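Action item from last meeting closed. Structure (330 res):
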């Protein structure tokens, strides 16, 4: 256990820039941009409290304030939507996660062989399984948890700025939002989706670690090129079969698409929502119910393709551990 703890610390300190600073910089940029826009609106008078005009045929017939226009029911709806979905404001930060995780996995086992530091690590009483699993835990557990923390902090900061701007317009959202229990549960809903993310991301992480432990060079081309070229060849085979065989279509293209999504796109948070179709919870006047989103996420564990991907991911991780044992040529 102590060995794994120190290995995780090593991964964190060596890749702190990607896992911490990259989402943190994205969060700071978002907060500064939103704060700048709101500040400009208030300073320039474009967000004045009495800037609601009713026009008929281009002529202003009535001028009032937003606070007078917004009814108590509408104000309650806005507050409920803000409490339920303020966390969605941090969604752009999650775009950073798959990019960092993809290149981390590609370099995780390859860099040790390239600079021959693998010889030093192999001289320590650390097994290859511990090394590979520490990298897997780092990318599938530590990195998402850090991203959720940063995204939550950014969403809270942006919500606070938005609430201040609303107060400037005469609409106080602090009370109804801060007394809504969903405001505090929203980050926990995201944490509750992390186990689902781990399972859906396992095939991609396994494939990238396998390539990282096997390829002597050009790891990106091997990781992306092999699946794409295989997909093109299978589509070509499907076309030839369709030209010569008049029976039912084999639908190879659909299977190829599923495999490509599993081994190349699994690190993107929320991939299980991509093919949800009508099963995806629809937004209401009070926003999207995060509890329903969490329930749908866990319901995807009943899909056979998920467990097929998990088995393939475990097999590729096992192969990566075995390959690391023998490939130390740099």
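Sequence:
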């Amino acid at each position: 256990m102590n060995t794994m703890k120190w290995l995780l610390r090593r991964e964190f300190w060596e890749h702190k820039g990607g896992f911490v600073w990259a989402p943190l910089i994205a969060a700071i940029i978002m907060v500064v941009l939103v704060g700048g826009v709101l500040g400009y609106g208030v300073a320039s008078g474009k967000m004045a409290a009495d800037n609601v005009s009713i026009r008929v045929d281009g002529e202003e017939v009535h001028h009032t304030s937003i606070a007078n226009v917004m009814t108590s029911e509408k104000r309650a709806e806005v507050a409920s939507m803000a409490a339920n979905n303020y966390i969605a404001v941090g969604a752009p930060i999650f775009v950073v996660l798959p990019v960092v995780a993809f290149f981390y996995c590609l370099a995780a086992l390859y860099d040790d062989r390239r600079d021959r530091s693998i010889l030093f690590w192999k001289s320590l009483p650390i097994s290859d399984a511990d090394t590979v699993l520490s990298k897997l835990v780092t990318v599938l557990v530590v990195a998402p948890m850090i991203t959720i923390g940063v995204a939550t902090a950014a969403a809270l900061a942006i919500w606070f700025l938005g609430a201040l701007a609303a107060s400037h317009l005469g609409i106080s959202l602090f009370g109804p939002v801060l007394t809504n229990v969903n405001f505090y549960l929203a980050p926990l809903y995201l944490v509750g989706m992390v186990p689902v993310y781990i399972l859906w991301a396992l095939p991609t992480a396994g494939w990238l670690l396998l390539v990282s432990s096997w390829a002597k060079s050009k790891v990106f081309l091997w990781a992306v090129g092999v699946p794409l070229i295989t997909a093109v060849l299978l589509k070509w085979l499907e076309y030839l079969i369709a030209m010569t065989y008049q029976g039912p279509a084999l639908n190879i293209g659909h299977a190829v698409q599923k495999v490509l999504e599993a081994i190349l796109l699994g690190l993107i948070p929320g991939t299980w929502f991509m093919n949800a179709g009508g099963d995806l919870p629809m937004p209401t006047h009070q926003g999207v119910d995060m509890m329903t989103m969490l329930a749908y996420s866990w319901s995807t564990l009943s899909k056979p393709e998920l467990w097929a991907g998990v088995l393939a991911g475990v097999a590729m991780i096992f192969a990566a551990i075995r390959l690391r044992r023998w490939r130390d040529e740099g």
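Note appended to the action item: The chain has one domain: 3-326.
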